[in-house]
Design brief:
The complex is a heterodimer. Chain A is α/β, with parallel strands linked by helices. Helices cover 48% and strands 8% of the residues of chain A. The N and C termini of chain A lie far apart (66 Å). Chain B has helices at 2-21, 32-57, 61-73, 77-90, 98-111, 117-133, 137-152, 163-176, 181-195, 201-217, 224-238, 242-255, 263-275, 281-294, 301-314. Among the domains of chain B are: 1-58; 265-332, no CATH class. The chains are: A alpha/beta, B mainly alpha.
């Protein structure tokens, strides 16, 4: 028998797989109505991809899409919108591949994928500058609820006549690309601020225990530990708070409540009950919440170029210059504070993820959990949806409490950090390769109109972004707090390059999980910073290289703006070009970093690697 | 024209075959496996090349030019480069789009990533051709600016920064078009080549003087705001002269600061600087108030309010107004 050449098997297999793929694509298109048996009259499908798999979001999206698809003009045009939910674990790779192969959905949530940032944005997504400068047709009075038309005529006028971008609470900053100087996405929801969710039942039980303890002549060990070590002051303020149903207002009260919860767990023999459902996901939320209140004193000296943003290089340059050190009482207080909070997390919390932490909380095995508004719907539903209704509990929401004056570390804290810079999120962009760009934009206008955006976000349990809209009552505590210190007052320990980040992160985690002492943590980080090859010196060089490279990339933006101005008569390009020229020339080709080096190290050559 | 197109198509196919198979088509020893691969390659390249060429043979230069430009403004420099190269092969040198295509091809060569010496050399050559031959002075001038940028920047590893050559190009523009926007831009770039020199105060002062003299001569030029802001920054961060820095920033603010998205950062640094100069109390108050009123979402409003509260207490005779922070609140 004649031997079949092996090389042909590969080719045959390739053709078979190609044929199967083709059949699958055709079958899907046929099922969706995109193509018909006669090849004509097929639907135009607009696909919208996102990674929001939180409970409620997809259902709300489906409902909104169904309403849109039922609009007479949409039906008449034979348009159908479909959602494509993709888990965030693969969303980035998935979108990158589709963008490069020209098969990306018409509308994509912008994020995770590399191709949704930098110059790629201009290459793959539709600029929306012209659209956002005109009013949103779905904000015309006929689309607004009757009560709004009667009670708020001023707002009706504003929504109908103002440019689309000016109908957003954040002025559509969430869709603005500062480098490309254009809007490339439409934000659709506010993520809201990060808060502490608490189990009202458990906190009340803890407070009952505290109340009982307060009338004793001598406190049990768990209470005495907090009072004797100065975490909380045993005074009238404590008694007044204990007498109410209020959640903890200060860090001392929070830690005391945590001790009470641990005592309850001990009394009931509930091994799994912990005060805070901490995880690797939420550990940084506490570190971030306390960083600015504790360390803002250094901000003015650390922000070398006074641009209201503190980089990691500025932070470590200030460390070299002696502005701050790990020996400062203030710095120690900050780390000790986070350490104390982390002690209230479950053992081995760094191995736990976001889902595990939230599950523990909704199962009633933790009194508190930190997360953002995006988890509110899931948490609320989980807490009130147990198979055994007796296990249901009410969920409260509070801000991260700060140490009060008179409590441990109270002398280091002035104000919380504010949340005024919060911008709208869940931004959707339209791909350039879409065959139906106008319809895709029409759908985004519909999605971000007053009535639809409010209803969609209420259904999803999220926060709407359009002026005058309001979320459900349960989302109100996530409103950004304008009172407090700016993010620009926060030092930055996390450089994006060099191994300082690896060392800092690794040692911090060991310290937070109780494996090493503060002194060991500090000495190991300092050793890393001092390392001649990979320490701060390398950071100076790496940041200089990166900055130079960034300014070189900005030249590309300048070139395209000039071509827009000269070849396409784009009326906005000239102004953008002038602003771009300023950005580039004021960057001094990254030499500002070398000037800063010279200020701190007048007798040393700039490091080269 | 058809002959040119046909021959190009054939050339492309032959080149591809050579590249893929490492074997000329005529070689009889080619195996069937290689043959199939070559055939597929031939088919694909023929389709792409001939589609492009058919557009060009129709004489629709303008349509093809627009498509190539569209690729360029979408940062698709390699595709745009190829398209302009195709166009330049067929478009007559006296066609109105000839130099515009040349300029665009040079721009693409300058910005293709990763940049290489060959690409930058080609960009330089093309820009020089536009600068010396193009009758459109705007395009010619723009080519000179780009030559300056190529000399000034480190485009690829090992590229030498040549500030002197960059300055010569910028000066050439200033001398040729002294009363036009091109010269305004050129003087800004030129001053930058002096200000960016690390640790040389004299050089920085030279750049500063250059800008101040130019602004005295052409105060309303299109780049006046960037110039004043750049001066303010240089006086503040490089020359340690907060008083003069503040004056420059104020002049820029009157025109409109050139950094819309970071305007609050400028207001903040102006207020902080003014607070340290006793004679600038009014300026200090004005900019803290602007932070609260104009940029309430910048994050600095609360701190501005605290500062104003303190100033109001320290200077009751001034009757300092402390505005309320009016920030969007969910549900309001």
């Amino acid at each position: 028998m004649k031997k079949i050449p092996l090389n042909y098997i590969g080719i045959v297999l390739l053709l078979v797989v190609f044929g199967l793929s083709l059949a699958q694509v055709l079958s899907n298109s046929f099922k969706a109505g995109e193509i018909t048996a006669f090849g004509k009259g097929g639907k135009k499908i607009i696909r919208i991809a996102h990674w929001q798999l939180e409970p409620g979001y997809r259902v709300a999206m489906n409902k909104m899409i169904a309403d849109y698809n039922a609009l007479p003009k949409v039906k008449e045009a034979n348009i159908e919108v479909q959602q494509v939910p993709v888990t965030e674990k693969v969303y980035g790779q998935w979108l990158n591949v589709h963008l490069m192969s020209g098969t990306a959905p018409d509308i994509c949530e912008k994020g995770f994928a590399k191709m949704t940032s930098g110059d790629y944005v201009a290459r793959f997504f539709e600029p929306l500058g012209d659209y956002v400068a005109k009013p949103n047709p779905y904000n015309q009075p006929e689309y607004l609820p009757e009560d709004v038309k009667q009670e708020y005529p001023g707002m009706v006028k504003l929504l109908a006549e103002n440019p689309w971008r000016e109908t957003f609470n954040d002025g559509m900053r969430g869709g603005w690309d500062d480098k490309l100087q254009n809007h490339y996405a439409v934000p659709t929801s506010f993520f809201g601020a990060v808060r502490l969710y608490y189990n009202v039942t458990l906190i009340n039980e803890a407070k009952q225990l505290i109340r009982k303890e307060l009338v004793k002549s001598s406190y049990d060990q768990w209470m005495a530990y907090r009072v004797d070590n100065g975490f909380i002051k045993d005074d009238a303020k404590l008694k007044a708070w204990a007498a109410t149903d209020e959640p903890p207002q200060t860090l001392g009260q929070l830690l005391l409540s945590c001790s009470a919860i641990r005592h309850i767990a001990q009394l009931r023999g509930q091994d799994k009950l912990v005060p805070i459902a901490g995880s690797s996901y939420s550990q940084n939320m506490f570190a971030d919440a306390y960083k600015i209140p504790f360390l803002s004193e250094y901000a003015q000296q650390v922000d070398m170029n006074v641009n209201s943003t503190i980089t990691a290089l500025e932070t470590y340059a200030a460390w070299e210059a002696g502005v701050w050190s790990f020996e400062d009482e203030r710095v120690k207080a900050y780390y000790k504070c986070i350490e104390e909070v982390c002690k209230e997390f479950p053992p081995g919390f760094l191995a736990l993820g976001r889902d595990q932490a939230i599950n523990r909380f909704v199962l009633g095995q933790a009194a508190m959990v930190a997360s953002g508004a995006w988890d509110a719907n899931g948490i609320m539903k989980g807490a009130s949806g147990h198979n055994d209704p007796s296990k249901d509990f009410e969920v409260g929401i509070m801000t991260f409490p700060l140490p009060a004056k008179g409590e441990k570390w109270g002398e280091y804290v002035s104000y919380p950090s504010n949340e005024a810079q919060a911008t709208a999120g869940a931004p959707y962009a339209v791909t350039q390769r879409s065959q139906n760009v106008d319809w895709a934009i029409d759908f985004l206008q519909y999605m971000s109109s007053y009535a639809v955006n409010q209803q969609f976000n209420r259904d999803a349990g999220w926060i709407p972004v359009i002026m005058g809209t309001s979320p459900t009552e349960q989302m109100m505590p996530f409103s950004p707090n304008p009172f407090g210190l700016s993010k620009g007052a926060g030092v930055n320990f996390y450089p994006g390059s060099t191994n300082i980040r690896t060392i800092y992160d690794g040692q911090l985690w060991l310290y937070m999980s109780g494996d090493i002492s503060y002194d060991t943590f500090a000495s190991r980080v300092v050793e890393g910073l001092d390392n001649k090859q990979n320490g701060v010196r390398r950071l100076w060089y790496a940041e200089w290289e990166k900055t130079r490279s960034n300014f070189r990339n900005d030249e590309r933006m300048l070139a395209t703006q000039k071509i827009r101005e000269m070849y396409k008569n784009d009326p906005t390009a000239s102004d953008k070009y002038i602003r771009g020229v300023f950005k580039v020339v004021a960057g001094n080709n990254g030499n500002g970093i070398r000037s800063d080096w010279l200020d701190i190290h007048p007798d040393e050559e700039f490091p080269e690697f | 024209m058809a002959d040119v197109t046909d021959s190009k198509c054939q050339t492309s196919q032959f080149e591809i075959c050579n590249t893929v198979c490492h074997t000329p088509i005529e070689n009889n020893s080619m195996s069937p496996k290689h043959g199939i691969v070559c055939l597929l390659c031939l088919l694909l390249t023929s389709l792409v090349a001939c589609q492009r060429q058919s557009e060009l043979t129709n004489g629709d230069y303008a349509g093809y030019f627009d498509k190539a430009t569209e690729e360029l403004v979408c940062f698709n420099f390699p595709v745009s480069y190829d398209m302009f190269a195709d166009l330049l092969e067929v478009i007559p040198a006296d066609h109105e789009l000839y130099y515009r295509s040349l300029f665009a091809k040079a721009t693409c060569a300058q910005h293709i990533t990763p940049p290489t010496q060959e690409l930058l050399d080609e960009a330089t050559k093309l820009f020089e051709q536009v600068a010396s031959e193009c009758p459109d002075k705007n395009l010619a001038g723009r080519a000179i600016i780009n030559l300056g940028r190529i000399a000034e920047l480190r485009d690829y590893p090992g590229d030498i920064i040549d500030l002197d050559t960059a300055r010569k190009y910028y000066q050439q523009l200033i001398d040729t078009y002294p009363n036009e926007d091109l010269a305004d831009e050129a003087i800004l770039w030129k001053a930058g080549t002096y200000i960016q020199v690390v640790g040389d105060k004299q050089s920085k002062e030279q750049g500063v003087t250059m800008l101040e003299d130019w602004l005295a001569k052409r105060p309303d030029n299109a780049f006046a705001s960037p110039m004043w802001t750049y001066l303010g920054q240089t006086y503040e961060l490089e020359l340690d002269n907060p008083q003069r820095s503040l004056e420059c920033y104020i002049k820029a603010d009157k025109i409109g600061l050139p950094a819309e998205s970071s305007i609050s950062a400028f207001y903040w640094r102006m207020a902080i600087m003014a607070q340290k100069i006793p004679s600038q109390l009014d300026t200090c108050v004005k900019y803290y108030q602007k932070i609260i009123k104009i940029t309430p979402t910048s994050g600095r409003a609360f701190e501005a309010k605290l500062a104003l509260d303190e100033l109001a207490k320290a200077h009751p005779e001034k009757n300092i107004q402390v505005p309320e922070i009016e920030l969007y609140q969910i549900g309001q």
